Amino acid sequence: MREKAVPTMDSRERSDIADDARGGRGTEPMPRRSRDLLAPRLARTILLAALLSYTLITMLNILSTTISTTQTVVALGSLGAILGLQLKHSAAGANRMPLRVKSLTLSVQALLTYVPFTVFHTGWGSMAGFLAGSVLLLLRPRTGWTLYGLVGLSMLVPPLLDRLPVLDVIYVCQSTLLTGLVTYGLSRLNELVSEVHAARGELARMAVTKERLRFARDLHDLLGFSLSAITLKSELIHRLIPAHPQRAMNEIQEVLAVSRESLADVRRVASGFQNMSLEQEISSAQSVLNSADIGVDVMVSLTGISPQSDTVLATVLREAVTNLLRHSRAGHCTIHAVQRAGRVSLLVINDGIEPGYRDPSPHSGSGLGNLEARVRAIGGEVEAAGGADRTFRLRAEVPSHPSAAAASLAEEIAEIRDPAA
């Protein structure tokens, strides 16, 4: 008997498969590291520069007065200690320190702030601003703002004791409050920039996870049916070869067609393009079910639905037929697709459920969770239940033309919560 020529892949198809194996036809260059990645470091630098500037101003005020060497050394040591405490208070997460630790450090800073006023008077004024900023950073808002105001008012005393003019008294008080606000604002800015930078990394990881979920879900939904069909038809071919070689050749042609379609599905998944046709899936399902000697009753009444609804219902049908082949011993299947009043309803009923039956495959996970996420994403609903007469009924209803904006948002939420992970 003359053998029929088996279609072979041309060089372009082989190249496509090789590209798929490498992960795609081309790789986009990695984006360069943007300047805004230095934002946390820049925020810390600005904060440190401001604190050093205030400390330097106070140091210059001290050095400009006539004091002994011992007093100068004590003053410089106190300035260094206050700067160290302020850096600790301005660090990210400092407000989460235990209350005991915060009370201790604030007490030490208050002591180092007010005691030198007995010697240096108004020349020590900037350091009170650090204390005002620290109480805002470490304490609860009500307590912090109250103490902040009290620190500012306390700065009225030194200039009054020095018998300075009223404008100088107001200046010392106002500069203390301003220094406190600047210290508080720059410290909080540094913390917020660090949090935003960390959140951006987390968003990038979420985007990668989301894409992995999409890829896993689509591989399950698109390839589950195709691989089940190839397995079923291969078993049929094995039985037909001895007695019906011609029919076996026809079935081989169908297996090749299904395998090519599976390859196209993989490419669509990789590129994010997932449009499918319900009517084509119904025709494919009929062919597969007939090969399995399962009777099929089909009724289709569709006048035009959106590609999104068409794709979702085609996916539902694929999963229904895949589950039928893997989890039942059905002899008959009913597929009805009806459109009315702006809604499209797909009903799949099959018999032959075996309550104790389990698929022997070690990875026989259910895709009903995927279907529920897809259908709800476009404002539809899905029901699946077994009947007392050993029948299984799967019904999905979706809008003929779902809102694009709402469907897009719902799809993103569904992908993040997709149980296929």
UniProtKB/TrEMBL annotation:
Any one Pfam family match given in the protein's UniProt record, by short name: HisKA_3
The Signal transduction histidine kinase subgroup 3 dimerisation and phosphoacceptor domain, residue ranges: 211-275
Membrane-spanning segments: 42-63, 123-139
Classification via CDD domains: HATPase_UhpB-NarQ-NarX-like
UniProt KW Transferase keyword: yes
Record's keyword terms, sorted: Kinase, Membrane, Transferase, Transmembrane, Transmembrane helix, Two-component regulatory system
Residue ranges, annotated region (Disordered): 1-34
InterPro entries: HATPase_C_sf (IPR036890), Sensor_HK_TwoCompSys (IPR050482), Sig_transdc_His_kin_sub3_dim/P (IPR011712)
Keyword Transmembrane set for record: yes
Coiled-coil stretches noted in the UniProt entry, renumbered to this chain: none
PANTHER family (alphabetical): NITRATE/NITRITE SENSOR PROTEIN NARX-RELATED (PTHR24421), SENSOR HISTIDINE KINASE DESK (PTHR24421:SF63)
The protein's name in its UniProt record: Signal transduction histidine kinase subgroup 3 dimerisation and phosphoacceptor domain-containing protein
Native source organism of the sequence: Streptomyces rectiviolaceus
